[in-house]
Amino acid sequence: MTEDNWVDVFAFAELEEDIPQGVFADDHYIVLYRIGEAVHATAGFCTHEVADLCDGYVDGDIVECPLHQARFHIPTGKVLSAPADRDLGTYRVDVREERVFVRIPS
């Protein structure tokens, strides 16, 4: 882990819009999303069942779970539709020198 719990996880240029990218940062599985020039990061699994959101469908700033179609607002992690009833965890993201860094809570 780097100083202040910021972890270098991916190259910004390799992130594509509408294609979630799963990464590991220490013990955390995280999914990165590029929305325009912004990058967001959420917990990697749906809160309803353990479905990998990296396989989810992205529409603008919403990700839909590939298993039961629960929907989440990517920037905030807020659940938008059943069957999920718990928000996704989110992570702070910083892009510097063309690299994506994610802050892991201590």
Summarize the SSE layout with pairings:
Blueprint: E1 6-11, E2 21-25, E3 28-35, E4 38-43, E5 57-59, E6 62-64, E7 71-73, E8 79-81, E9 90-91, E10 93-96, E11 99-103
What's the β-strand tally? 11
Class per helix and strand makeup: mainly beta
Number of helices: 0
Query: What's the shape?
Result: globular
Could you explain the architecture of this structure?
- This protein has 106 residues and is mainly beta.
- It is globular.
- Helices cover 0% and strands 45% of the residues.
- The chain has strands at 6-11, 21-25, 28-35, 38-43, 57-59, 62-64, 71-73, 79-81, 90-91, 93-96, 99-103.
- It is built from no helices and eleven strands.
- The chain has a four-stranded antiparallel sheet with strand order 2-3-4-9, with no helix packed on it. It has a four-stranded antiparallel sheet with strand order 5-6-7-8, with no helix packed on it. Strands 1-11-10 form a three-stranded antiparallel sheet, with no helix packed on it.
- Strand 5 and strand 6 form a beta hairpin.
- The N and C termini lie close together (11 Å).
